[in-house]
From TrEMBL:
The keyword Cell membrane does not apply. This is MFS transporter. It comes from Pigmentiphaga daeguensis. The keyword ATP-binding does not apply. Its main location: membrane. It holds the Pfam family MFS_1. Keywords: Membrane, Transmembrane, Transmembrane helix, Transport. PANTHER family: MAJOR FACILITATOR SUPERFAMILY MULTIDRUG TRANSPORTER MFSC.
Amino acid sequence: MSFAAMPGPGAARGLIRVSAPDSLSFPAPADDGLRMPRRAVAVGAITLAAILSVLDGSMLNVALPLISAETGMSPAASVWLLNAYQLTIVASLLPLAVAGERVGYARVFRLGLLLFTLSALACAFAPDARTLVSARIVQGLGSGCIMSSAAALLRAAYPARLFATGLGINTMAVTLAAAAGPALSSAILAVAHWRWLFSIALPAGTLAWLCAFALPATPRRPTRLDLPSMALNVAALSLTVIGLDRLGVHPPTGLAVLLAAAAAWLAWIRRDARRARPLLPLDLFAIVRFRLSIFTSLLMFATQMASLIALPFHFHGDRGLTLPQAALLLTVWPIGATVTTFFASRLLARFGAATLCATAAIVMVAGLSWILLAPDHLFLLLAPGLALGGIAVGLFQAPNTHDMLSSPPRDRVGAAGGMQAIARVGGQSLGATLAGIGLAQSDRIGPTLAIAFAMGLALMVLAVNLRRRRFLPAMERTGTMARS
């Protein structure tokens, strides 16, 4: 998750208005990025908001059984506390990116933080299940505002020479948050009610909102809102995620929903292909670096999700490990990812994104193979395989995201960030579906088959990046854009 002559204050009129000024008492922005200390405050707001969004999902997973029991929701219905949030995000990203181009990404970001924080408070005091799910939908809209604008704001905040380093720091913070989520949730639930999981967003969200007034101004474009395209966007993306989710549970229903999603995609693409400024950023897919970065991102997120779903079943069923042993092993993965992310941005300038992403795919296959082939007599012998999986994720995320966000023009980074988030959610849905199909086969071979699916996805990442490395060697060195 992790983004210039500036127009004057009256250069554009938007739908979203915030009365406070963009700069307060901070020094004026430099020609390329913000000056310190304003940059530190702005980046702090972006990073804290991203951490809140990631923690929200990773902490809530642990609490679903408690919420289900207290609110009277069935276990299947309680999953919609996650699904409603994710679906709202994925359906709103591109329309909100267009809103950011129109009224300024900083305004959309601040509105998102306000919605996210207030809806978290509503979740904490929700009297029933329906109110709780409704508040989660609003919270997903707030998170969509944050995600759709964060990439453009991050790129505008940093000078070009520091963007890769800044992106690496942001990615490392988000990775740490994802790793800490389950442990933090368990610690809170041990001493407090599950409603406190939402309440802690209030002080952090308020702090991030105040810091967000240091965010840089970004160029605005007079973009007309195309309501039919927005409706097709919601239908295509929502039906795709729902169809992939249902495919592993009830294949006929999943296939029917995916066919409907395909029809919505076709209608959306045909409509936007005739427009000068389409909602679906078809112009960005003409950029070879962006196109390959998006595709490889989708595949790698699918690889990681399939692995992380399958591994606990493998540890418990095939290896006979206890829950504490499995939990101890699984912490090795995010630790490996976090440590490696710190070095990945330094390696990017020397080796290029394609080489690092191809290497990440090889390391991922090696790690999963180690886990499958390690002997049973000492469970800690599985740790190197998990460390390799985390290292693969760390090698991949910051370089690929940098390539994805640096290839479009600056005024299109918001749309690129929206597509990045869509690729993440779509990849996670694909990985979960494939893992579910593997696990459904039998208790004996299911986890192994799910891990094999993850290895197959990693090999697809390798193939895409070998092609990317062969066709884009000059751009990997110079950072120039290429168009097909």
